[in-house]
Fold this sequence. Notes:
Blueprint: H1 3-22, H2 27-49, H3 57-69, H4 75-91, H5 96-116
Helix pairs in contact: 1-2, 2-4, 2-5, 3-4, 4-5
Amino acid sequence: MTPQERRDASLEFSQRSDQEFDRGGNTMIAAELLWGAVAQALLAVAEINEWPCQGHKGYFQIAARLAERQPHLPWQSDIAAADQLHGHFYNRDLIPGELNSKRLAARRALHGIIASLPDQ
């Protein structure tokens, strides 16, 4: 996939996650879609910058690089929140209040990542 295709997929996954969350649908699906949106956006950043991203750990390495560029933003904690949403897909372990706070953090990360991508 190209970075633009990853960006587009990220936006689509985010929209589908919002629809699932907002209609009171399956939180496992909504959480995984939002994680997927963040992951695709991070991969777009990695590809544009020619940064390696190998495996799940690579997402946190990208977040660390973003934090170096913009230390005033909570990249690492927001990516960790998105990762907890990914875990919810497997374990269904987040209660509604936790889901909401993790969702807000993941969306903040996603918006920051998307904003950092060049328009194509």
